[in-house]
Amino acid sequence: MKKIKRVYRSISSLFKKPFTISRKILKSINTIYLESGFLKTVIKEKSFDNEGDALPWYTYSAINYLKTLDLSNSTIFEYGSGMSSVFFSKRAKQVVSVENVAEWYEIVNTKTQKNN
Fold first, then answer.
1. Cβ(55)–Cβ(48) under 8 Å?
2. Are 85 and 97 in contact (CB under 8 A)?
3. Residue 49 half-sphere exposure, CB side, CA atoms within 13 Å?
4. What secondary structure letter does DSSP report for 75?
5. At residue 75, what are phi and psi to the nearest 5 degrees?
6. Counting Cβ atoms within 10 Å, is residue 93 exposed (0-12), middle (13-18) or buried (19+)?
7. Which residues 6+ apart lie within 8 Å of 84 measured at CB?
8. What predicted TM-score, i.e. pTM, was given to this entire model?
9. Beta bridge partner(s), residue 75
10. Tens of pLDDT along 61-95?
């Protein structure tokens, strides 16, 4: 009987650590998906933050850095328009994008803020 209890304790201890790790992973997933806005990005197939504002397809640390810059007197040039155009239109004096798909241009253009 003592041997069975030792085996049981050994086996059960193996399952406690993965369970603990699983909780940490779930908490991280919650943070990534819900707090950062990544879940909205996945669902809508366009990049958004947790408040629904457009984000460029950059890393979150790059976006956080860009948010600290004063671009109010800057002109942003980008090759290809999208959520980055919307993001920069709220922060820069002007955004110039090269876009070859007319339908996509119209969609993005309706979402950008006019600063001129």
1. yes
2. yes
3. 15
4. E
5. -110, 125
6. middle
7. 54, 55, 56, 57, 58, 78
8. 0.66
9. 94
10. 898 899 999 999 999 999 999 999 999 999 999 99
The helix or strand, by DSSP H or E, that contains position 45, with its residue range, turns out to be none
Burial 63-74 (b: 16+ CB within 10 A, else e): beebeeeebeee
Beta bridge partners of 76: 95
Both tokens of residue 68?
């600290």
- Here the tokens at position 96 are 């110039």
Q: What DSSP element (H or E) covers 29?
A: helix 2-30
pLDDT in tens, 35-47: 677 777 777 777 8
For residue 88, count CB atoms less than 10 angstroms from its CB and return exposed for 0-12, middle for 13-18, buried for 19 or more: buried
